[in-house]
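Hi D.,

Good news: the full-assembly prediction came through. Inputs first.
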Amino acid sequence: MNDHHSERLEHILRIVFVLILGGILMIVQRWLLFEKFFIPGSNEAENPQVFFNYVYNPSSLIVWLFSALAIILWYLTTLRIRDKFRPKDTRPTTLLWFSYAILPIMSIVISCILFINNSGDLLPALSSFLVFDGILIFWIGTAVSTPGIMANVVPLSNIWRFLLRIKG
Amino acid sequence: MSTTYIIAIGGTGSKLAEAIIHAAAMGIYVNGANAEDLNILFVDPDRGNGNLSAAEKVLKTYQACAKIVEYDNKIPWMRTKVEQFQGGLWSPFSKLNIRLRDIFKYDNYSENNPVRHLFDVLYTKEERDVDLKEGFRGRPSVGAAVMAQLRRNDSNQDSWETLTNQISGDLHGGKSPKVFLCGSIFGGTGASGFPTIGKLIAEDLKNKKDVKIGGLLMLPYFQFPAQKSEQQIFSRSEEFLLKTETALRYYSIKNLKISPIYLLGSPNSTSIDNFSTGGGNQRNPQHYLELYGALALRDFIFTEASPQQQVVLISRKDSNSVTWDDIPNRAEVRNKLINATQFAFAWLSTIVPDIQYIRKTNKHRDVIWYSKFFNLQEINNPHEQDHLNAVTGWCQEYLNWIGALHRSHNGVELINIYPFIQNNGELKPELDRFQFSNLPKNLNDSLGINKVLEKLNPKAINPPNRGFVGLAKALYFSIYQTK
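Then the structure:
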C-alpha cells in the first residue's frame, strides 16, 4: 500500500472513530441525561419507552446520519482542493466549511418537524442536545479528517488534532 | 573524512569548480557516512576573468548557506565543507600589465644574443608584446613558459609550501588527501597549466605515495564565431580541435604523473555569441558537460586507485540527447539532483511567498508550517532575515545553473526547467508552486508540494531545527523522504 492510500485509510478510520464516538455519546446522553434527569419530572415519566422509540432514537439517528453525510462530503471536497490549496484560500474555505455545517443543523429541523413536536415539555432539552451532538460530531469529524495543509480551515481544529496527536 | 584539493585552472577550471560546488550542495560528494571536504584553488593569470568571478560568487553563496545549515548528517544537502584555498587565487604574475618579454627579461639581452634569437624563433612579435593581464589568449605555448615559473614567483612560494604542507599534514593525520586538477585542453591557461602544475605537484609529493593525484580535461565543447579584433592574439575556436590533438599527443608521450585523467567532450559544440579575449566579459554560459565534470570528481574521490592504468568510458545512448540513462551512478545522482532542484523550487515558489503573505496579512495561522518553526514574531528578527536571504540566494543560484545546463543543449532531458526558467534564460520572478511535481522528467510518482509541506517535521532533523534553517532542512528532508 503506498503512502497515498495509507493516508486516505487513516483519514477514513478517523472519521469512523468519530462517528462511533458520536453514536456512543448519543446513547450515553439518553441514559445519563434523559433517563436519569429529564424524564422523571416530565410528562413522559409514565411511559419513557414511547419517547425513546418514537422521538429520541429516530431524531438522534437522523442527526447522526446527516452529520456523517456532511463529514463525508467535506472530506471528498478537501481531497479535490487540497493539492491546489494556498494559505490565502483559508478564509474562503472556512466559509465553505460553515456551509457544510448547515447539513447537521438541517437534520435537527427535519427531526423537529417529524418527531420532536411530539416530545411535549422535553422539546427544549432534546433539541438543544441534538444541536450540540450534530455540531460536535461534524466539527470533530472534519477537524481530524481534514488533510494537514488545510487543517486551519476548520475553526479550532488544532485542539482536536493535538489531543489525537495528529501530525501535519 | 578526507580532503580533496581541487586546482581549477583557467576559465574552464572555474566553470568546473562552479559545477563542483553545486554538486557538493546536492550531496554528490557524500557517500553514506563519508562526506569529502573540498578545498579549491583557482589558478588564473586573468584575475578579473568573468568565469572566475562567477565561481567565487557561487562559492560565497554556498558557504553562507552551508555555515548556517551546520552540516546536518540527516540530509545530504550542504554536507560537504567547501573552502577556498588560502589566498584563493594563484596567478603566475605578481604585478599587472606584464608581457612575455618582461617575464623572460628579453630586453636585457643584446640584439645579437643567441638567447634573444631563440626567443624570436619560439614566439612571434605579437606574442612577445601582448599584455597578459587577461590570460594567455588561447596560446598554450605562451602559458607553458609562464606557468613553469609559477613556483618561482615569490608571492606564490608561500602558498605552494602551504599547499604541500597541508597535504602532508592531512596524510600524517590519517586522512587520505587527494589532488584533482581541472581545466580545458583547448585554451591557453588550462592547456598549459594542467601538465605543468600537475608535474610540479607530483614532484613535490613524490615521497608521499598515498596522495592520489588525478585530473579532468575538457575537450572542445563550445565554439564562437570567428572574430575580427584589433588585437592579433586571441583564442580562435576554429583552432580548438587542432590544439586538442597536439596537446593529447604531447600528454601521451610525457609521463604526467596524474592518474586517473578524465577527458570529457562533445561532438556537438555549443555556440557562444559573447566572445571576449578575457577579463570580466569572459563569462561563458554553463554547460551540461560541466555536470559530468563534477561527477568525474565523484568517481575520483570514491573509486579506489588502481595500480594499473585503466580506461573507463562513458557515453550517451543517443548523441542528440542527455537523459538519466546517460548519467553515471544514475539512481543516486538522479535522486540528489531532483531533490536539490525540487527543494530550491519549493523554497522560492512556496516558502518565500508564504513568508510575504504572513508579513502582509499577519495571518500566520493560515500557513501550517509556521508554528512548527517560528514563534509569533520571529520571522521579523534580523538574524532570521539573514538566514532567509542565505537560503534564498543559494536557491536562485542553483536553479539558474540547472537552467543554464539544460539550455546548453536542446537534448538535455533531466529536469523540466520551464516552470522556473523564462525563454530568455533568466529565472522567472514568480513561480507556480503547483509545478513542483512536474520538475522531474520521466518520473510520475512525485508528490505534490502540499503533501511535502504536510510532512514537515522539525524533530526529524538535527539542531538547529527551528527558524528558517530548521525549515529549510526539514523541507529538504521531507522531499528526500518521498524519494
